[in-house]
Amino acid sequence: MLIQGGIAHYDTPIGIICLDSKFPKPSGHIRNPTTFKFPTVQHVVKGVDVRRLLFEPTPDLIEPFIQAAKELELSGVEAIRQLWISGSISKGYCSCS
Question: Which of 10, 42, 68, 84 is the most buried (most CB within 10 A)?
Fold first, then answer.
């Protein structure tokens, strides 16, 4: 197989969009690299933690998640998974297609 340049990750099927958090991530947590038997790439949405997502949602809060997905796509992942996104953001503000 001939590998060409232009992307950061090869053979990495899953990109994971994560909230900004500092607590320990034991095996089994989506952000622990040993959780999956396949490689993952994580993108932390800086400045967006659980408190901000649940209690301070604003219309512009969806943009960092969209940008994270675009960056993961450009890096070469084959699929993207977000941990979760507040219903108030995804229902009220997201007009993604």
Answer: 68
